[in-house]
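I wish you would study the pair of lines that follows with an eye to the fold:

===
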Amino acid sequence: PLPKFYTFKSREERERILYRNFVNVGMEVKEMIKDVQNKRGAK
């Protein structure tokens, strides 16, 4: 779960953290899709 808001030390830090979160969400979505496809294939 993500916090409701962030306090960033600088604009650069904000960009780094938000980009890292964006990349992590993308990877999690790909993993979820793989899991769903594997479960469908197992039937």
Summary: DSSP finds one helix and no strands in the chain. The mean pLDDT is 90. Helices lie at 11-42. Residues 28 and 34 are 10 Å apart (CA to CA).
